[in-house]
Amino acid sequence: MLSNRSKLPKVGTTIFSVMSALANEYQAINLSQGFPNYSCNERLKNLVHEFIQKDYNQYAPMPGVLELRQALAQKIKKLYNTEIDIQEEITITAGGTQAIFTAINCSIKEGDEVIIFEPAYDCYAPAILLSGGIPKYIELEYPTYEINWKHVAKLINTRTKMIIINNPNNPATKILKREDLLMLEKLTSGTDIIILSDEVYEHLVYDKKTHESILKYPKLMERSFICYSFGKSYHVTGWKIGYCIAAAPLMREFRKAHQFNVFSVNTPIQYAIAAYMNESDDYLDLAKFYEEKRNYFLKGIGQSRFKPIACEGSYFQLLSYENISEEKDLDFAKRLTIENKIASIPLSSFYSKGTDHKVLRFCFAKTNDLLDKGLEILNKI
Ligand SMILES: Cc1ncc(COP(=O)(O)O)c(C=O)c1O
């Protein structure tokens, strides 16, 4: 029967679509979905226009426009002191999501186990399931959201083929420390486990802390796919463009899948970003920009009954409402949207078992006037 053939029988509409639709229906302040409500840089927009006008409008090379791969290799050298082979180790993708999907799809087979930490960004498990793999979930410790490496060590066995990390973490808003990366190195050493490192928020790390990219760890790099998104770094989530970095043997497998899935990515935007990167390194200002937003939101929420959970990275602030209500987080989030006109994301939706610590996620990548409106509502609850 056709109706019984779903490969993802338990997957419905994502919580982001659900909450955004509800926010629209009830005209609520939408702090649910993670996207900025302000414009990207004018120069970047003009460059896209320029490259379209100059007729850079046909297929790009399968791995991506050379100029963009060059600009990225320079950035990686500057930030992480790591040399990337632009011919073999980097591929431009249709957003971070496609990079993640392709990395999983090209390396996971029927019955392979993949370790995921929860709360987890929602695109990992479906990609594993579509590849015939088995997601093995480990919950991050609450409320620190740290990885319990003893649990990881216990779960690893000969069927473990991949571990997915997300650093900085959405939705947990935590960053990994050097010790975490060293533990990962130790546990995977001598195995054939691949690491998928989702680093789309690489620049959004606060309080003078540094981003511990896999790119700084040569032994981990040999076994990793590292995925990025220009959407996050240039306030252009709707452009859906990103890239994946991996050692040549892994990247060869990645491209086998990529070439028959996407083949190549939006040409004028690739040229525009390359030209922009050669003129400006304004991604270096992102941490300060978003740290100010985080602090603005925190100051504004200070007198409310919500309890903030420390945010070290990403553009989200978690708020515990355990002092306000005993409702399930999904019910509470929906009620806030319908009755109070403010939309957020309930954290239980990032857990396979629906674990509910009574925490909501709010996006602070918004203009201060919108944040003010949201804060005014939250302070009355
Ligand atoms: C943790 C994480 N990974 C990946 C992505 C996807 O990035 P893109 O929009 O470039 O596909 C997002 C977007 O919100 C994210 O939060």
SSE topology:
Elements: H1 15-25, E1 29-30, H2 42-53, H3 66-80, E2 90-93, H4 95-107, E3 113-118, H5 124-130, E4 134-139, H6 149-155, E5 160-166, H7 178-188, E6 194-198, H8 218-221, E7 224-229, H9 230-233, E8 242-246, H10 248-261, H11 267-279, H12 286-301, E9 307-309, E10 316-320, H13 329-340, E11 342-343, E12 345-346, E13 359-363, H14 368-380
Parallel strand pairs: 1-11, 3-4, 3-5, 5-6, 6-7
Antiparallel strand pairs: 2-8, 7-8, 9-10, 10-13, 12-13
Pyridoxal-5'-phosphate (PLP) binds next to α4.
What structural category arises from helix and sheet content?
alpha/beta
Number of helices: 14
User: What is the domain total for the residues?
Assistant: 2
- Give the spatial strand order of the biggest sheet: 2-8-7-6-5-3-4
CATH architecture of the largest domain: 3-Layer(aba) Sandwich
Assess the beta-strand content as a share of residues: 15-25%
Q: What profile does the largest beta sheet have?
A: 7 strands, mixed
Shape: globular
Mind explaining what this structure looks like?
- The chain folds into two domains: 2-40 and 284-380, Aspartate Aminotransferase, domain 1 (Alpha-Beta Complex); 42-282, Type I PLP-dependent aspartate aminotransferase-like (Major domain) (Aspartate Aminotransferase, domain 2, 3-Layer(aba) Sandwich), CATH 3.40.640.
- It is of the alpha/beta class and 381 residues long.
- The chain has helices at 15-25, 42-53, 66-80, 95-107, 124-130, 149-155, 178-188, 218-221, 230-233, 248-261, 267-279, 286-301, 329-340, 368-380; strands at 29-30, 90-93, 113-118, 134-139, 160-166, 194-198, 224-229, 242-246, 307-309, 316-320, 342-343, 345-346, 359-363.
- The radius of gyration is 21 Å and the shape is globular.
- It is built from 14 helices and 13 strands.
- The mean pLDDT is 97.
- Strands 2-8-7-6-5-3-4 form a seven-stranded mixed beta sheet, sandwiched between helices.
- A hairpin with a 6-residue loop joins strand 9 (307-309) and strand 10 (316-320).
- Residues 34, 95-97, 121, 166, 170, 198, 200, 229, 231, 237, 240, 242 line the site of pyridoxal-5'-phosphate.
- Pyridoxal-5'-phosphate is lined by residues 34, 95-97, 121, 166, 170, 198, 200, 229, 231, 237, 240, 242.
